[in-house]
Structures are given as structure tokens and as C-alpha cells.
Design brief:
This protein has 336 residues and is an alpha/beta fold. It is built from 14 helices and 13 strands. Bound molecules: ligand TLP. Residues 7, 9, 58-60, 63, 84, 88, 136, 140, 169, 171, 197, 199, 208 line the site of ligand TLP.
Length: 336
Amino acid sequence: MWVDLRSDTLTRPTSGMRRAMAEAEVGDDVFGEDPTVNRLEQRVAERLGKEYALFMPSGSMANQVAIRLYTEPGDEVVMEADAHPFHYEAGAAAVVSGVTIRLVQGRRGVLDPAAVRAAVRPPNVHHAPARLLSVENTSNRGGGAVVPVERCRELASVAHEAGLHVHLDGARLWNAHVASGTALADFAAPFDVVNVCMSKGLGAPVGSRLVGSRSVAERARRFRKMLGGGMRQVGVLAAAAEYALDHHLVRLADDHARARRLWEALAAAGYAVEAAPDTNILYFGVADAPAFVARLREAGVGAIAIAHDRVRLVTHLDVDDAGVARAIEVFASLRG
Ligand code: TLP
């Protein structure tokens, strides 16, 4: 039995999802004529309480377009030290937008408003002017931590007062919503623009949405085209995302419960676990993470060494209770 806990991006479309994809009504989305895309855009926008939700091929492109929307070359973007656009987007902000990134240390990936205020420097000829704050909810490298809605509001208001726009990297906002009970629209409200991914916990094969006002979406549509993200009969992907919203949102609670079970078992077995997971991501420390991950793989468990001494596990749609039980056995045997 292979239990793949490397990422929630690994999920394969279920048979129901594949059927929805096969039956999707499609058109050319660059012409704005794909009915399934248009319907999904409206549904996601409504759920997030914004005017528009533009289909994006990936979360990385959504984040990069968000940065491009609010900056010019030579500007600065502020984000938490563990943020995805800094660590995992191939340096795109430097290339696509020509910006510098200012990192602010938070706790479990969650920023402190006072630290953000302190990081935004007053206008001065020596400085790259800060134009955008990017907030990640949940925080991936922060152990899937939920940024509570009050914190989101405080961060946005500090940034807005300082004249910055505010972006939410909500690749896993669905998890934050299910774990906290906070409405998606309440989470999204403080932000000028929001990225939500359908291809993580929700289990769609491809696609994210960039959500904001109609005028933001119109400008984003141009940058999406510029980056080669204008796609044609993309309704087959939108149908998968729509199916995911209908069938895979509430069940994220199962992933969270399984992550918790894993964390408890690892702690009981003496692993150096980090904080108990809020959602579906957990980390533990080990002396030689790549070697340990290789041993796990041999024993049938997929994990990622995200640093020389730190391992990540992620629960998702394709890992059930039996998978978690098996993983727990393997972890126990590698300790013994
Ligand atoms: N995260 C992936 C990897 O890139 C690390 C993963 O396995 O977790 N924002 C956040 C918070 C993300 O975690 C990710 C993907 C993205 C954006 C980018 O989404 P994609 O992979 O669609 O470009």
C-alpha cells in the first residue's frame, strides 16, 4: 500500500469528476464564451463576496498576476518570511513585475500587524516603495495555520492605512473556512484581490481563481493573457472545479481530522512534531530529512523534506483512514 502524503496537489480526479468534465459544455474562453467557465466564475465570486473570479491556470500565476496588478518595477511587496511567492514561485516576482520582496517574520506563517507597520518605510529616495502586502491563509510552511479573520482585518487595515494594496494567497482558504467556520466572504472581504486554488484540497486537477472587483478582473485578464494563461475550451477544467466545490468542500474536515490523528501518533512515537495542525498540513523535525524521507518511501509512505532537518506531511482526498493507519504503522516501525 502506497500512502502519498507529499502534497494535496497529488489528488486524481474521481470518476464523478471525470464524468462532469466529459460532459461539460464548452466554448472559447479567450472570447469569454465558455459557459461552464462563466458559471463557475460567478459561483466562486458569489461565495467570496466579490464581483469577479477569473480562471487562472495555477496558483502561482494567480499570485504573480496579483503582484503585477498593484506594482511597477522597483516597487516592494511585503510578505511573511515563509510565504509561497518568495519560496516556491521560481523568483517570478523579480521577472514578471521587477519588484523586490520584503520578508517579515511571523509566527507559524501568520503576520503580526505591528511588524507589518514597522516594515513599511516612509517615502524616501533610498527606498523601494512598498505597494502591496501579501497574506497567506492557510500558511503552507506555517503548518497549515489558519489566519483568523480578525487578524486578516487588522493586517489589511494596517496596510491600507500605509497606502498599500492587500492580496490574499488563499490557495487553501477552503481549509481555513472549514476549520474555523468563518464564511469565505468574511475571510475575503478585507482584501483587494484573492487567489483561491481548486487543485489543492478540493481535488480538481488544474486551476485557481483570482477574485476581486470587475475592474481588477479586467486588468488581470490582460496580464493573464500576457503570461500565456488565456486558455480556450477550459470548461472541462471549470467543470472539475465546480464538481469539487459541490462534493469536496465539506469533506476537508476529514483531512483535518486525519492530519490531527497523524500528528498525535507521531508525537506519541517520540517524533519532534511542530504545532498541532489547524488543517491538513503538519511538520516534524528529524536530523537528516532527505535520508528519512527515502526510508519512508521504501516503506510505502510519501513525504517531502522541505529543509535538511524538516519533513512535511499533507492529508488529502486520496488518503483515507486505512492510509493514515498504515502511515502510522510505518512511522512507528521507523522509530523502533
Ligand atoms: N504549493 C505546493 C508547492 O508549490 C509547494 C504544495 O505542494 O504545497 N500558494 C500556496 C500557499 C501554495 O501552497 C501553492 C502550491 C501555491 C500558491 C501555488 O499553486 P500552484 O501549484 O497551482 O502554482
